[in-house]
Specification:
The structure is a homodimer.
Chain A (H helix, E strand, L loop, with lengths): L1 H15 L6 H8 L3 H7 L11 H13 L7 H18 L1 H13 L1 H25 L6 H25 L6 H16 L14 E7 L4 H11 L4
Chain lengths: 222, 222
Amino acid sequence: MRDALVAAAFRLFLERGFERTTVDDIVALAGVGRRSFFRYFPSKEDVVFPDHERCLADMTAFLAAAPSESDPVRRVCDAARLVMLMYAENPAFSVQRYRLTRQVPGLRQYELSVVWRYEQALAGYLRVRFAGLPDGILRADVIAAAVVAAHNNALRSWLRSDGKGDAEAAVDHALGHVRESFGAGPEPAVARGPEDVVVIVSRRGAPLWRVVQELESALGRA
Amino acid sequence: MRDALVAAAFRLFLERGFERTTVDDIVALAGVGRRSFFRYFPSKEDVVFPDHERCLADMTAFLAAAPSESDPVRRVCDAARLVMLMYAENPAFSVQRYRLTRQVPGLRQYELSVVWRYEQALAGYLRVRFAGLPDGILRADVIAAAVVAAHNNALRSWLRSDGKGDAEAAVDHALGHVRESFGAGPEPAVARGPEDVVVIVSRRGAPLWRVVQELESALGRA
């Protein structure tokens, strides 16, 4: 019944627009009563994002299950991947919703508050892992924001490509950038000689980001 | 008249709560008509954040006026400082508003959308500055999010201390952390010869953050 409500809602949103569709219209098309609608969705906005609550719960459980020796930055990157996986499960629906959300200010607001909840989940986990470190809370908040921004950058690119590209590769690339900025580095490389040495020569006055770029490319991580 | 409306609104919000105060109540207390209210504020939410539009305009102008040789990460950090300065202009008002915003979900929503607009302003500037760089848009989005998160971390700490600490020192410290993660480092040192060369030797397998740490310390930016 939940899926039928979502399908009916989206059909109407696309036909007549989000604002001009009422909950009564949706339940009439789905052939159920108003109370059934509200059993699944607190509001008309919620039916547009039917899977975020489940995904938030999955993310929270995934973070809570992290072994204490796991790298915390890698763990939040992996947690963020769960969101992309949810979008990639159903590319056509995700792309439709993306277009709808661009058009309706109330939905963009809703989306901002969902994104904020994901960010809080990641930051909460990192705050615990960084407890006792200098600036632990600051680091946690900054890394969580960076992870969410990188994830959303990849997600938006994929949605704008009509869900045609490789969503997972895009999000891995974006999150790899965050991992490198904050010290978790790429996935451990295989068969790399421990004594292999890299020499970088740089002007002292060069901006650090440029030097890091040279460094990344020298280390084969660009 | 604008200030009188803000003062009347806050007196009522604190006395009877945000939800139970109407625009009619506010204009009655301020002794003006409804049309005057809506000339200054599109909605009741806007009167809670009377200075964000001006601050967004100041930030946009500040970024647009950046010399092309300025360090882009430092520039967005300085732009974010404008927001903290606005809050620090009137600590008592800022603290009052912070408490009000914690209690009213509609105001938290409003705040999220304001924060999002600041982040978009910073990201927009960085996207232009990073145009043509590999992953320029990704870098821009991630750095803008990190700057906003660091700023807000400092701002919230200051608000929770009832506006008693040194707001500017707190935000400088938080933004310094972002600058170090993303390569702008602290303020430029003086008397640095342009031909001065730094050589870094590193194991290829070393985590990038460790190499960057060595680099920062060699460049005198740690």
